[in-house]
Amino acid sequence: MKKHIVTLCLAVLIAMNLFSQNGDEKSFFKIDTGYINVDRGKLFYEIVGEGENIVLLHDGMVSHEIWDEQFALLARNYRVTRYDRRTYGKSSDPQANYSHIEDLNQVFNQLKIDSAIIFGMSAGGGLAIDFTLKYPEKVNGLVLVGAVVGGYGYTSHMFTRGGRIDQSFFADEQKLLNYFIEEDPYEIYPENIRAKEKVKKIFGSNPKLNRGNGFVAIRADRPAVKFLSEIKVPTLVLVGEFDIPDVHAHSGVIESGIPNAKREIILKSGHLIPLEQPDAFNKLVIRFLERLEFNSILNSQGVDAAVNHFNTKRTKEPEIVLFEEVEMNLLGYKYLQEEKIKEAVKLFELNTIAFPTSWNVFDSYGEALLKDGQKELAIKNYKKSLELNPSNTNAIEVLNNINGATQQSNSNNLLNRPESIIYDKTHNRYLLSNYETGSIVQIDSTGKQSVLVENKNAIQGLEIVGNVVYVGARNSVRGFNLETGDMAMNIVVEGVSNLNDVTADDAGNIYAGDVFGTKIIKINIKNNSYSILVDGNGIDQPNGLFFDKPNNRILVCSFRKNFPIQAISLDNLIVTTLATTNLNNADGIVLDKYGRCYVTSWETKSIYRFDKEFKNPPIVFYKNNSCAPADISYDNVHDAIAIPLMLFNSYEIVPVDPPNE
Question: How many domains does the chain have?
Fold first, then answer.
C-alpha cells in the first residue's frame, strides 16, 4: 500500500518546535529518523535528545504526531523515542497477524533502549501496561494518558458514543473521522478549536483509518486487569475531564490496581490530553519525572546524594516538592527501624522543608533527633509541632519527659506508642505492644497498667494462642507466656524487613506479614519452623492480617496507596481481591462476629467497615481527627473494636452495633 508522506509544512513546524526556547542559543536538537524491521513489516521512528530513555506510544486513532507538544520539551533532559505502530502513520501495513508488544520490544532492542519511562496514550496506554507486565525489567516508570486496560471491557456507551453513532459510521471512514473531530463530545473538548484543527492536519497526511488488511494485533498472553498489582514502577494516570465514562472507569481501575499509581484529572480536556491541554499536561509530567529522578538518586546513590539533589533543585525552584509527605515519613521510619538513624534524620528534615505547615513531620523529625542524641534540636522541633497542632499529646508528653516533669494525669501511663492491642479473655485484660520500648503492657478491668513483657522488641501485631501471646518483632516473631511474660518462642526469619501484624489459624500456625515487602510468613508453632506462604502474587506491603475461619483464608490489607482488601485461600493459596479502595496506608484488619470487615487507614485517621459480602461502599465506623488508629482487634467478649492510638499513647474500646435485619 502506498504510504503517505508528512507534508513539508508539518515538518517545518516540528523543526521550529525543536529550536531552543532561548533565542540567544540559536540551537536545535538533531532528530534521528528511520525505520526498524519487525516481523513482516517496518516501523517508522524518531529519536531526539540525550539522557535517560523515554518512549512515547500514540493512541489508537492518530499517530506519533500526537506528541508534538512534548517531543522537544522532553528532549531537553531525556533521550526521547516516538514511533508509529503498525497500521499508523509511516509504518507498514500488516501482512499477517502481529504483536504490538513484540513490535515495541524490537524498538527497545534495535534502538539500544535498555530501559525507559513509557508514555502510553489511550490504546497505547494499554500496550504500555501489557509490555510492563511481560518485560518489567525494561520499564522505569509509566505515564498513562486516557489509558485502557486489557480484560476490563467496555459498555455499549463507548461503542455508540452515548447513542450518537451506529454501524453506518463504521462503513464510511470519512464520516466516522469527521464525527470524532467535529461532533464527538469526548474525543476533543468541544470548545478547543485549535486541537480540532491540529487533528485535521494530522489526518490530512494520513487520511485512511482502517489499514489492517484483514489482519489483527495478537492479544497479550493474559488479561492485564487481573495482574496490575505486579507493576511496581511509579505510575502517573491522567484522564481528561470530558473523556468518555468508560475511560474514566478504566483509569480508576488502573489507579487502584497499580500500587504506586496516582491519578490526575485534566480540566477542559477530552481524550487527546497532550494535544488539547499541553501546558497542564507538561507541568504534571515534568513534576512526575522530577520525582522519579529524586527516587532514582535516593535508591542508587543514597541519602546524601538525594539531599544534595533536593537542595540544588530548591535553589532554582524554591517551591518544588519532589516527594509526598506520607511517603517520605514512612521511608524515614523504615530507616529508623533498620537502625539507619543518621539517614533517617536527614530524610525527616527534608520533609520539614518540603511541608513546613505539617505538625506531624516536625513530630517525626523530633523523634529521630532524640534517637540520634540531638536533644536540643529535638526539643525545638517538638515545640514547632505543638505550635502547629496544640493537641499533639505525644509532643507534650515527650517534652515533659525531657524536662523531667510528669503531669499527674499521665503519671501511671506505661503506654509508649502502642501499635497493637488484643483482649485476653482468660485474664480479663487488654494487652498492648509498645513500639517505642518493645514492651507489652497489660491493663486490667479497673484500668490499672503494668508491664507483662519488658524491653523484648515486642513492638508490632499481637495474637493469642493458648497461654502464649505472639508478637511481630521486626525480623522475627516472638511468643511470651501469658502468666509470667517469659519468652516462649523466637523465630528469626531470613529475607524480611519488618514483620508487623500476626494472626493464627486453628491448626497451630502463626502468619506474619512483611510490611515493607511482599511476603507473608507461615510459622508452625508446634515445631518452631517457618515457610513462605506467599511472596508477591498480588500481595504488596501487607500490614494487616486476619484469619477468616468460616472461609479458611487470611484477609490482608496493605500499607500502600489505594490498598485493596485481599484474601489468601489456605486451601490452594490463590489470592483474590474482595474489594478495591481509594484509601491509603492500611494498618489493621478484623472481622466482627457478624462477618463484617473493619480496616484502618493511617492517612485518613479512620476505621472503615465493609459489609459481609463486600458489596457496598464502606462506612466510616470511627474517626479521630488528631491521631490515626493503629493495629486494631475485635473483642468478641464485649462485642467491640479495640483501638490503639499510637501518637496519643492511649487506646479506645468502641462497641459495634448489630447489623440491621
Answer: 4
